[in-house]
């Protein structure tokens, strides 16, 4: 996977030990790392005439969801900063980090099934990290 080089905690117990700010940073890095590869993947599958319209639609939907999720996490980050929950050290990070050329080239050379496997893996990580972050920010959720 093109994100394999990113240091991410192995398992929930390790992720729970990471400070909120670092966890938020990690979420944004993972989401940003998928922005460009998903765009290329969408372009790639559009040229496959044999794919059903449903598959094309799902791929575009996933790409849009990643973009919306990244935007949502950035808004939550801004709110957390304004409330003093985390510092402002994350400013500007999301637009510049995670988009290195080598990562994007590696993602472009993966087979479709590998690409989807890696995307699913990273999506599960982001989902887990967001749950942990939510529990830390809103402890009354009884997590």
TrEMBL record:
It is found in: Secreted. Its main location: secreted. One of its GO terms (molecular function) is hormone activity. GO terms for cellular component: extracellular space. One of its GO terms (biological process) is response to nutrient levels. InterPro entries: 4_helix_cytokine-like_core (IPR009079), Somatotropin/Prolactin (IPR001400), Somatotropin_CS (IPR018116). Keywords: Hormone, Secreted. It comes from the Eukaryota. Belongs to the somatotropin/prolactin family. This is PRL protein. It comes from Pachyramphus minor.
């Amino acid at each position: 996977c093109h994100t394999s080089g990113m240091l991410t905690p192995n398992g929930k117990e390790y992720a729970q030990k990471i400070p909120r700010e670092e966890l938020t940073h990690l979420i944004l890095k993972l989401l940003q790392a998928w922005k460009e590869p998903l765009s290329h993947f969408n372009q790639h599958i559009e040229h496959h005439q044999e794919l059903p319209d449903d598959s094309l639609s799902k791929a575009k939907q996933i790409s849009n969801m990643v973009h919306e999720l990244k935007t949502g996490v950035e808004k939550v980050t801004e709110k957390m900063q304004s409330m003093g929950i985390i510092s402002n050290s994350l400013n500007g990070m999301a637009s510049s980090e995670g988009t290195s050329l080598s990562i994007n080239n590696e993602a472009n050379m993966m087979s479709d099934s590998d690409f989807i496997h890696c995307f699913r893996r990273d999506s599960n990580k982001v989902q887990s990290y967001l749950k942990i972050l939510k529990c830390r920010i809103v402890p009354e959720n009884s997590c």
